[in-house]
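TODO from last week: model Glycosyltransferase.
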Amino acid sequence: MKSVWFLNHYAQEPGGPGGTRHFSLARGMRNYGWTASIIAASTEHGTNRDRLAPHETARLDHFDDVPFLWLKTSAYAGNGADRIRNMVGYTRAALARDNTKDLTPPDVVVGSSVHPFAAWAGLRLAQRYRVPFVFEVRDLWPQTLVDMGRLPQRHPVTYVLQRLERYLYKRAEKIVVLLPHAHKYIEPLGIDGRKIEWVPNGIELEIFPRPEPKPAADTFTLMYFGAHGTANGLDNVLRAMAEVRALSTSRPVNLRVIGDGPLKPSLMAMAKDIGLDNVAFEDPVPKLQIARLAADADAFVFNLIDAPVFKYGISSNKLFDFMACGRPVIFACESSNNPVDAAGGGLTVPAGQPRLLAEAIARLEAMPPDAVQAMGVANRDHIEANYEFDLLGRKFAGVLDAACEHRERR
């Protein structure tokens, strides 16, 4: 068996809220000749829960025989100086030799962005061990920050991040992208497209048993699980719920919003201000509980703002969770790919159009139960066929094998 290290600042252990991509890939790759170790920050993104005691600087845990190395990082809130300090602290801790001494030495190192400093640390470790470096691109930094309005296009920080990004692309043996059309961004930077491989997010179907049809009820229940951030554009969903009240529906339509994020207080205040008694905000739940709660849903809503970066596509954990739960999904997004449409599992409306979203909700509520059920089954079938982690683990293992072979040829 060969060994790979995943450097993912925000990696999540099983059982908590958030995505568990690398844990799931690690399990999926076992049958294809690879074992994986995950190197992550001690502070949990979104909650600031610290997995380490005050006196600990690092700790090696195991979950289903997958090693997780937690590195001590500082707490932060928002996207200011404290978060940058957290990123730099993780990068320095990952490069400290004492912290990684108990891990099986790597045959490949994968540096995974959200931010590029974690990927840069992965490159440095690959150079230290004289093994191939694979750059996994989950977000197109800094372009995502620019497109979201968080960073000016002409700014010294943007320039530095762009230089670092191109350096990582050029030094990588392979580039793994989660967005299906990310190559349209990367290749114009002078990068050989043959280095780029698409391995999206996926689903561990064992925690999402095949669902039963939703029994008829007096209320139509719409659900949203996930982050309450700028990109999610949940104000659009709240406005749509206000519009729904003016439409003719045979049953009351309620929305359950489950999760957390920096905009949750303002969204709750907005719902109160416009008198949304058909919207309930709930605390986030561990991933293992999503399937149970989803049994109460008639449909899910997936919403993103209209941002230029989505022209490269999306690979959303929560969207795949929604689809795996066997319910229709209303897709309010302008991305270049649309898994719901590909599955035939719901309705699609433009981003940022609350009236059109409200009309889609009312249209779905009015559909015959067998038509609604068929959409949910189509979503589940599509996920099983395309996004199950054994399939993705085999694909990722193939990328690592190719990286090793390419390095040997050089």
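Done. The chain has two domains: 2-202+388-409, 206-386.
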